[in-house]
Design brief:
- The chain is an alpha/beta fold.
- The chain folds into three domains: about 10-180, Aconitase, domain 3 (2-Layer Sandwich), CATH 3.30.499.10; about 185-290; about 295-425, Aconitase, domain 3 (2-Layer Sandwich), CATH 3.30.499.
- Helix content is about 40%, strand content about 15%.
- It is built from 15 helices and 14 strands.
- It has helices at about 10-20, 25-40, 60-70, 100-115, 145-155, 165-170, 205-220, 235-250, 260-265, 280-290, 315-325, 340-350, 355-360, 385-395, 405-415; strands spanning about 45, 50, 80, 140, 175, 190, 225, 255, 275-280, 305-310, 335-340, 360-365, 380-385, 400-405.
- The protein has a five-stranded parallel beta sheet with strand order 12-11-10-13-14, with helices on both faces.
Length: about 425
């Protein structure tokens, strides 16, 4: 029989565990301590913020858990954002859920707000003000948010899941384990991308294909990508890379030489000379694109989905520029853009929504089109720039999907059929 690891708790930890701060905090603390024991953490650490994935309705158990915490008087002790939900509250009726499930989903959203979390309803909390600084410890859930926080921001979070995420937010504590430890953040694999032409990397979809390749090659290791021009590695592209790598593999942290915070600090010391090196070629990206594509060129296109993870302000700007002065989308192809309430308001104020809506695009907030029934039941083929959406949508919705660049997606949505520009991928 394996003996449980002895966790060193502070007097304040003990007070929370004993119920001195109320039964809700005690309940949350029991789970945090149990996780610390399971991960063999020597003690707990303070966290500066949390991001909650448990607000997406999966069934009665999640609702019971959240409402139990509310009934016990628990509230979050650190700034806490909420991930996507199962409903778009700004556009009632858009999500086609049975009345009973819709009511339960709304109750779940209300419970997490009652716990003191901010009603952000976004999978991209890093697009909001007050995001964590490099070196700070946080407890973030949702795979793309985790990998972005660790990699692009240089904050430190384990891969937290439902239930434990809100417990960390309530207690303000998390186990010192996993990627909270600097020693676990050192790359163990180099992915050499120097043979990929810069013109190929000049599209977000190529970074999604790169992320798919990274996830397949890396699994749960920590890698460093080398040979990538820093000028091409903007946040939207790193977002696309990380989101797809976290879906096709278990990636929670990657580094890009000369770009991401910890890689810049390490400088010439990374990659360490002893790490394995794997070359990533343009052919590998095209193979990833093709694996994420289940429809054929020329096929009728019923829908286009953008914004998984949620569309950023700069992505709205790029789309508005691409659509300006052009023809509208084909009436047979519905274009959906998923984003957060916060970014939606910014995009409207900046004038980026008018060209999108004039072309025929429809907006979704609070949720995502591959998670809940939003697309028409008649959709058979859809296109996207998102590797994550392309990875999950076929199984979730039973449709054929095409991964393409933004230019390919716009041309296809206007034509009402799948168009591929091979020059963008070579």
């Amino acid at each position: 029989m394996i003996e449980p690891v002895e966790i060193r708790l502070t007097p304040e930890d003990e007070a929370k565990l004993s119920g001195a701060h109320g039964p809700g905090v005690a309940m949350a603390m029991r789970l945090v301590v149990a996780l610390a024991e399971a991960t063999e953490a020597p003690h707990l650490i303070d966290i500066e913020s949390a991001h909650i994935d448990g607000c997406l309705y999966h069934g009665q158990a999640g609702l019971d858990f959240a409402e139990k915490l509310v009934s016990l008087g628990a509230t979050v002790s650190v700034p806490t954002t909420l991930n996507v939900s199962s409903l778009d509250l700004m556009h009632p009726g858009l999500v086609r859920l049975p009345a009973e499930e819709s009511a339960a989903a709304r109750r779940l959203m209300e419970a997490y707000v009652a716990l003191g979390a901010t009603a952000t309803w976004t999978c991209a909390p890093y697009q909001l003000p007050g995001r964590p600084e490099t070196g700070t410890d946080v407890a973030w859930a949702e795979s793309n948010a985790i990998v972005f926080a660790n990699s692009v921001l240089g904050a430190r979070t384990a891969r937290y899941g439902d239930f434990i995420d809100i417990c960390a937010a309530i207690t303000g504590r998390a186990p010192l384990a996993g990627l909270h430890l600097p020693s676990n953040r050192v790359p163990t694999l180099e992915l050499d991308c120097s043979s990929i032409p810069p013109r190929v990397l000049d599209s977000d979809a190529a970074w999604a294909a790169l992320g798919f390749t990274v996830g397949r090659r890396v699994g749960e290791e920590v890698c460093i990508l080398t040979g990538i021009p820093a000028a091409l590695a903007n946040e939207d592209r790193l977002k696309a890379l990380g989101a797809t790598a976290a879906s096709s593999g278990g990636v929670a942290l990657f580094h890009v030489a000369g770009v991401t915070p910890e890689a810049r600090v390490a400088g010439g010391e990374w990659p360490p000379p002893s790490v394995r090196r794997v070359e990533i070629t343009p052919e590998a990206l095209r193979a990833a694109r093709d694996e994420l594509t289940t429809a054929t060129v020329g096929e009728t296109l019923d829908a286009l989905s953008l914004g998984t993870p949620h569309f950023s302000l700069s992505e709205f700007e790029a789309l508005a520029d691409a659509l300006a002065g052009g023809s509208p989308f084909a009436p047979t192809c519905t274009v959906w853009i998923s984003t957060s309430r916060s970014v939606l308001a910014e995009a409207r104020a900046a004038g980026y929504l008018e060209p999108c809506e004039s072309a025929g695009a429809r907006l979704v907030v609070d949720t995502c089109t591959y998670l809940v029934p939003i697309l028409s039941e008649t959709v058979r083929t859809a296109m996207t720039t998102s590797g994550k959406w392309a990875w999950y949508a076929p199984a979730n919705m039973g449709i054929a999907v095409v991964l393409g660049t933004l230019a390919e997606c716009i041309a296809s949505a206007r034509a009402g059929r799948v168009i591929r520009d091979e020059a963008a991928w070579r």
